[in-house]
Every structure is written in structure tokens, then in C-alpha cells.
Here is the input.
Amino acid sequence: MKNVAIIGASGFVGPYLVQEFTQAGYSVFPVDLPEVDILKRETLDAFFTKVKPDFVVNLAAISSVSASWNNPGLTVQVNVNGSLNILDSLVSVGLLSSRILLVGSSEQYAPCDRPILETDPLLATNPYGVSKIAQENFSSLYQKKYGLKIINTRSFNHTGVGQSDQFVIPSFCKQVAEIDKRGVPGKIAVGNLSAYRDISDVRDVVHVYRMLLEEDQTESIFNVGSGKVHRIKDLLDYILSLSSCKIEVIEDSARMRPVENPYLCCNPSRIERYWGGRDLKDTIREMFLYFKEH
Ligand code: GDD
Here is the structure.
């Protein structure tokens, strides 16, 4: 039985990834702060020495674009130094053949008005994207210097029950569900509705992560997304249609980004064979009902 170390496992994606590997028969070791802190090398060394993982996935990160604007320095520290510590730790405890998956982002790409390929140019428009480009650059240095086996994803937006309402789909679902529960007209706050994003179900994404680690790969960088793009305004309209209450939509300047990529769509050709293809509307309905019931 193979051992899988999942670092930063108590966030949104962690429980889904734990379930994905557990159901496939792996021994899963999910860890998070304070026991394993990616900014404290000694906690990583002790963990890796004990578990001797076949696979390592790092989910610990500052993952919000808005949060990264509020604290660019901390974003670099956690997302770049944290990942580097993981790689350095694996080298120092002699686990050179563990397979590692580092989660990157579609926010690494330069704006592009068609489905993006891994070979398209990178040029992040926010500190979060810059940190993920740096993580990937370090990973390629470590692959060359130490022969580490690293999968770098460039993951597009993914959502599901459990995602924080600092992100768009849970934010809209939660606000609308709260009004619907009260059963009286209300208002919701929104940001930029004109952006287009490739948004998928987190369960499709974690399945791809497992397959990328399990099967031998000839590439090391993978777009992870559906290849289908949605206008945020259309998703909002769908969420509003789930309620029978009259709801006023208010633009909130605090929710607007200083710079924003207007269109982000994945060309998923490198991972197509692993893609489950859940319908985003089903996921959104599930999230809306979750907020209504909780
Ligand atoms: N959060 C939020 N809140 N976003 C809004 C809102 C709102 O009220 N209204 C419109 N948006 C727009 C944002 O401007 C953006 O264009 C889009 O909805 C998605 O925003 P988020 O859900 O906050 O996600 P993100 O695209 O910034 O980042 C997510 O996706 C990346 C992959 O593309 C994160 O999950 C990142 O970690 C991930 O790498």
C-alpha cells in the first residue's frame, strides 16, 4: 500500500483529496498547522522521516487573489518559501524518489482570449500568480539539480461545498441562500460580473491530481480545468434563479480587483483522459442547498 502525504489538508481541497486517495486504497497522511508548518523546516523533516511518502501533495498556500493583494510579502513567503522548504526537506531526508504535486494556477498566464495551452506565455496580473510562477521555476531547478519527480499543475477555478465565501460561487450562493431562507426581498453584493472563468467541480480536479501522480508522465506541467468558460454574470443569474425571492444586485467596489484577467479558459488536452466532467450547475445547486440547510 502506498503512502500519501497531504500537506495543508484542512482547507477546502484537502478533505476531497483525502477521500479520493482513501477510496483508491492508499494510506493517507493528512497534516496541517500547527503540527506541520511549511515555514518550519524541522516539522517537515520529522513528518517526512516518519511517513516516508510515495506521493506528496502540497495544498498549503495563500490561495486568494484578493488576499494576495492585501499581503504580497506573506503570499511569497507561504507560497514560494513554503514549497521550497518541502523540496529541501525531501532532499535532506533522502526521499529523492517521492513523487510531488505542487498546485499552481491559471493566474500564472498572461491574458489570452482563447483556451490556454501550457506552452502559452506566463505573465501574472497579481501577487498570487507571481508567487505560483516562482514556485514552478524553483520546482524546475530542483528537478534538474536533484532529479526530483515533480508534477506542477496550473489549476483553473474549482469550487464545491466547503469552499470559503471569499471566492465567487460560495459568496453568491451563501448570500442568495440567506435571503431565500428569510423569505423576504433582499440585496446581495457582487464584484466584477463581466469576467469569464473556467470553473469546475473540485471532485474532478482532485481525481486528476491522483491520476497525474499515479501514472508515468512525460510532461511536468499540466493545465487542470474543464475547457468550458462561464461569464460570472451568467452564473449569478443561475444562482438567483434558484430563489423565488426578489433580490437586488449591488456592485461593491471593495470586491473589484486592481487588475483583472478578463478571460481565463483552459485547454485541457494534457489531462483530458482523466477528466470526470461534472456539470457546474449541479455543483452550484448542491452548494446553494448546503447554505440553505446550514
Ligand atoms: N471573490 C469574488 N467575490 N469574486 C468575484 C465577485 C465577488 O463578489 N464578483 C465577481 N467576482 C469575480 C472575480 O473578479 C474573478 O474574476 C472571478 O469572479 C473569480 O474570483 P474568485 O472566485 O475570487 O477566484 P479567483 O479566480 O480570483 O481565484 C481562484 O481561482 C484560481 C484559478 O484561476 C482561486 O481558487 C485561486 O486559488 C486559483 O488559482
Residues 160-196+228-266+278-293 form a domain with the UDP-galactose 4-epimerase; domain 1 fold (CATH 3.90.25.10). The chain has two domains: 3-158+200-224, 160-196+228-266+278-293. The radius of gyration is 19 Å. Residues 72-92 form the longest helix (21 residues).
